[in-house]
Amino acid sequence: MSKKQFIKSIAFILLFVFLLSGISNILSAKWVMKLSETCVLEGFYELEKNSLDVCVLGSSQVTYGLNCMEMYEDYGISAYSLGTANQPMMMTYYLAKDVIKTQNVSTILMDVSILYEESNEGQFRKVLDNMPLSRNKVEAIWAHCQEEEGESESESEKNTSTKQAYLFNIIKYHSRWQELTKEDFDYSDVRNYIYRGNNLNSDLTGHTLSYDILMIENDEPEEIEMVRENKDYFIKIVELCKSENINLILIKTPKESWTKTRHEGVAQLAEEYGLDFLDFNTEEMMKAMNLVTDEDIKDIDHLNVRGEDKLSSYLAEYMLERYEFTDYRTVEGYDPGNFEQYQKDHQDKYLQSCRNIEEFLSYLSDSRYDVMMQSSGDISGGWNEEQQKYFSDMGVSINPKDVAGMCYTVSINSGKCVFEQASETDCASDGVLSDGNPYALISRIGFADQMVVAGVPQEFKKLGLNICVYDNQMNEIVDIVTICSTEEGLELYHE
Question: What is the pLDDT of residue 337?
Answer without folding.
Answer: 87
